[in-house]
Input
Amino acid sequence: MAVTSSGSAKVTLPTDQQILITREFDAPKHLVYKAWTTPELVKRWWHANRGEVTIAEIDLRVGGMWRYVSVTPDGFEVGFHGEYREIVANERLVATEVYEGIPDAEEHAALNTLTLTEVDGRTTLTVLVEHPTKEGRDAHINSGMEGGMQDAMDLLEQVAISLR
Amino acid sequence: MARAATTTDAFNAVAEPRRRQILDALAGGERPVNDLVRMLGLAQPQVSKHLRVLREVGAVDVRDQGRQRLYRLNGQALKPIHDWVKNYERAWSERFEQMDVVLEELKKEEGDGSDE
Output
């Protein structure tokens, strides 16, 4: 039985407004694309072990919408949605991403570009998240976390204290 | 309207690209300010201003050696940024581990060809 431990995700911050996520999978790209774009499959991985995905809607066409909602065990609900802008099946997917937990969410939409590159049956996945502002990016880093922005604020406070 | 001080924490201190260049330069070892001026191609007052911001959040330390002031990186002050990104990275790692399980199933289904 194949054991697929392809290593952990790598996250870098290429510029003030970008987040780049990279990961290699022991599977061909058409299957990675299928796992990424099929609602019942998204429900099985998107929770990140931090709760349950209650809604995964995908209207996979340019101009179509997507929406994911997850709930942590203590009832904290996080919702994201966006619109597909560019679709190259099995290779590239560009979509906006709005984190519903912040004021004026639509104005702070990020643009996400998924790329899949296959070599010898293995696929390198990258997601480039581009925010209109640095503040948006910084908030995003915490958006998937339990407690969301509150964690970010607590952390910043701790940092300030530790640096006194 | 008053602008929030950029010196309040390490996150703001490293938001400025020039300051990140300084940190990158100092990651290679302790340096006098003249080295930094040359490496960055900036005027000394500008470099000094950036160094002051970095010192205020503890990201760089300074010591006098003879007539020179030597600056060095203090990684400890930057650890919160590292940890913060790591936390996000961990969430994605866990997502991808679940995706591995899904992909194994998809590969098997395809290998069987029984449902096609």
Observations:
- The helical segments of chain B are 10-13, 17-27, 33-40, 44-56, 75-112.
- Chain B has a mean pLDDT of 84.
- The beta strands of chain B are 31-32, 60-65, 68-73.
